[in-house]
Design brief:
By secondary structure, the chain is mainly α. It folds into 2 domains: 226 residues, HUPs (Rossmann fold, 3-Layer(aba) Sandwich); 72 residues, Tyrosyl-Transfer RNA Synthetase (Orthogonal Bundle), CATH 1.10.240. Helix content is 49%, strand content 8%. It has 11 helices and 7 strands. The strands form 3 sheets. The protein has a 3-stranded parallel beta sheet with strand order 3-4-5. It has a two-stranded antiparallel ribbon with strand order 1-2. It has a two-stranded parallel sheet with strand order 6-7. Helix 2 links the parallel strand 4 and strand 5. Helix 8 packs antiparallel against helix 10. The longest helix has 30 residues. It is globular, with a radius of gyration of 21 Å. The two termini are 32 Å apart. The model has no long low-confidence stretch (mean pLDDT 91). The structure holds tryptophan. The site of tryptophan (TRP) has 11 residues, from strand 3 and helix 6. Tryptophan binds next to strand 3 and helix 6.
């Protein structure tokens, strides 16, 4: 690429591509919801964007955790992401704590964020406020997320409903910092993933499918063997209407199954019974998971470690430059100039 004019807002040549960052919190096994809502859009985008995929292990420390499990989840998630098609030649895949710049910028941004602003975050109010043993890091979590995003001069962040408010805070902090201390940060925009961004729990179809323990029957893990997928789908909650209809309010379970089927196959379905719908979903999901599981088995933990080390090395120079720029703007360092 030939270097052309530099965009003052991005500090990059105007010809460069959109930079996209996704973060994934290693608090459990990756599941079908992550595949359809997060990994798929990332795969589609990695050809024509400058993509970064970060495993947010620091974020996993905001709630009760087990150190050995955390390490296992980080390794497993990295391996699953690669198995699912994240291409390390196109996407920088790295572990958040491998770059100390995240915590460095987090502190600077904390000093540009109001206590009340953090306290007002809905997710904190729901999960944290008032509960015994709540970690201080849960309150400041959205500021760390802002640091993740701003560190990389990120243009676009794919966000689901639960992260929209946090992205908004990142934009507010960036804008305020730039206005007060000088144009340091790129102000990012949120991107909503398209269809099937919301895969719901099979046993509780009004709640989002989430990372939980392996015993959870409502969540399809990306490493679940076919017979387990079958068992879970066959036990999925439907209703007594007996009509395969698409209506999130009246028929949340059936609608979820239909949407999973459509997201996996790209076909509308045309099922006339719940039994046929479930059988169709089993086949569709197993067909999605099979190649991922094969690739997972073929990857060695050492290869994965190598990819992560390389990712951190590639991500580091820009992160270090942003932190230096932010520090100098806010009044640190810069002596002897
Ligand atoms: N907070 C996000 C979640 O819980 C994960 C995350 C951490 C993230 N840092 C990020 C997402 C930066 C996007 C950008 O899902």
């Amino acid at each position: 690429m030939t270097l052309t004019a530099t965009n003052p807002a991005t500090h990059r040549p105007t010809a460069t591509r959109i930079r996209r960052l996704t973060g994934c919190k290693p608090t459990g096994h990756l599941h079908l919801g992550t595949l359809l809502g997060m990994i798929r859009p990332m795969l589609a985008a990695q050809h024509d964007t400058d993509s970064i995929m970060m495993i947010a292990d620091l974020h996993a420390l905001t709630v009760e955790h087990n150190p050995a499990r955390l390490r296992e989840y980080v390794a497993e998630q990295a391996r699953v992401l690669l198995a699912a098609g994240i291409d390390p030649d196109r996407t920088i895949l790295y572990v958040q704590s491998d770059l100390p710049e995240h915590t460095g910028l987090h502190y600077l941004l904390e000093s540009a964020t109001g206590y009340g602003e953090a306290q007002r975050m809905t997710q904190f109010k729901e999960k944290g406020a008032g509960a015994a043993g709540v970690r201080l890091s849960l309150l400041t979590y959205p500021v760390l997320m802002a640091a993740d995003i701003l560190l990389h001069d990120t243009d676009a962040v794919p966000v689901g409903d639960d992260q929209t408010q946090h992205l908004e805070l990142a934009r507010t902090i960036a804008t305020r910092f730039n206005a007060r201390y000088g144009e340091v940060f790129t102000v990012p925009v949120g991107q909503r993933p398209g269809v099937a961004a919301r895969v719901m729990d099979l046993t509780e179809p009004r709640a989002k499918m989430g990372k939980t323990n392996e015993a959870a029957l409502g969540t399809i893990g990306l490493l679940d063997p076919p017979d387990l997928v079958r068992r879970k789908v066959m036990r999925a909650v439907t209703d007594t209407l007996g009509v395969v209809g698409h209506d999130r309010d009246a028929q949340p379970g059936v609608t979820n199954l239909l949407e999973i089927y459509q997201a996996c196959t790209g076909e509308p379905g045309g099922f006339t019974s719940y039994g046929a719908l479930k059988a169709g979903v089993v086949d569709a999901v197993v067909a999605q998971l099979e190649p991922i599981q094969r690739a997972y088995a073929a990857l060695s933990p050492r290869e994965v470690d190598r990819v992560l080390a390389d990712g951190a090395e590639r991500a580091h120079p820009r992160a270090a430059a942003t932190l230096r720029r932010a520090g100098e703007a806010i009044g640190l360092g810069g002596r002897g100039r």
